Amino acid sequence: MGLGLHGGGAGAARFFAKRGWRVTVTDLKSRRELAPSLKELRGFSSIRYVLGQHRKKDFLGTDLIIKGAGISWQHPLLALARKKNTPVESDVGIFFELCSAPVIGVTGSKGKSTVASLIASLLQKKYHHVFLAGNIRKSVFDILPYITKNSLVVLELSSWQLEDLARHKKSPHVAVITNILREHLNKYKNFSAYARAKSLIVRFQKKNDYFVIHKNDAFIYRIVKKAVSRVIFFKKPPFRIANSRLLGAHNEENAAAALAVAKLYRIPPSKQRAAIREFGGLEGRLEFIVKKQGVEYYNDTTATMPDATIVALRTLKLRTKGSIVLIAGGTDKKLDFRKLAKEIKKNVRVIVWLPGKATEKIKFEIRNSKFEKRIGQYNAKNMREAVTKASKVAVAGDIVLLSPGAASFGLFQNEFERGEEFVRFVQKIRTRE
Prior knowledge:
The chain is of the alpha/beta class and 433 residues long. It has 17 helices and 16 strands. The protein folds into 3 domains: 79 residues, 3-Layer(aba) Sandwich (Rossmann fold), CATH 3.40.50.720; 186 residues, UDP-N-acetylmuramoyl-L-alanine:D-glutamate ligase (3-Layer(aba) Sandwich), CATH 3.40.1190.10; 141 residues, Protein-Tyrosine Phosphatase, Chain A, CATH 3.90.190.20. Strands 6-7-5-8-9-10 form a 6-stranded parallel sheet, sandwiched between helices. The longest helix has 16 residues. The model has no long low-confidence stretch (mean pLDDT 92).
């Protein structure tokens, strides 16, 4: 239930089809919308598809239901299946039941993908069987067949995956929380409910487990009082990361979190430095794309919340003597944009708006901001138009930054498609003579 576009649904279908199960994939999205995931499942004759709808009969005539992350356990069709004694499971729940290796789990509102990837890179400097999967667009089912008790597993875990895992009363051996910020308030009743979901990563830890958190995060620090595991604090890296390709103070904290885990697994300092130096960062996270006619273009499409865009603006403002041309806006997640509006007025010369309800909220906050600086504003119907307008107003020394501060739904399938379109149209910009 829920093929999705991030690999989890396709991984589950592939896993069971390879083992001789007859698999039904059902999703409310159309075949066209799900094309990338369907491509991954070509050649499996035992998989049939019910797309654009969920049918009651499919949930009654089956032996097992795998629920996609983010689908509510209270969904009427799942409730009906449980009433008929049909087991409902999640990929992460099954994974933790079958995984024989210790798991390092990473969650947080921002930075979790970078931290999880960096931890895996650090561990690979000493250990041979390190696996990275989870919310990072890599299905846990894809790595499960290759795991032994001598492996190490690094999982990025979303709040929804942690809620799924809590039903099994399991937590990772090492749990890392990067931060907890105001996010996904369109899905959760309030911030407290969202924060509680994040804190589930340590809910079922034992005394011989580890909990890694920021030294100065008072909010997360309160969770420590409930944790029975051994707490490891991180603050700043024990050495500078200036020679790495990771930009910004926030990435220093991400590196510090990863290095805390590396120290726990006794990675030699020289190999720690090498891993940090070699790590190239991740797609769509303050990712430098190209420099054309003296203008630098950055893809920060995973900035789906205002705090992330604020960090991006502060980081890049320190890197240029020119101005920032920002492409922003999109779908609202019931977040507060007042701080972002002030940051935009402070650090942005021109902003190009993508359509969406969040866009209108940010515009409202900009109009009501007491900061007097005027900024140029343009509306764009799509990414092609946004990139075209941004490139025309940018001059040598400027930075064009895609950092929306909002979700992508409506105009794009997800934030990664948004970033891919940005990169594609940036690459098509013609160099002026």
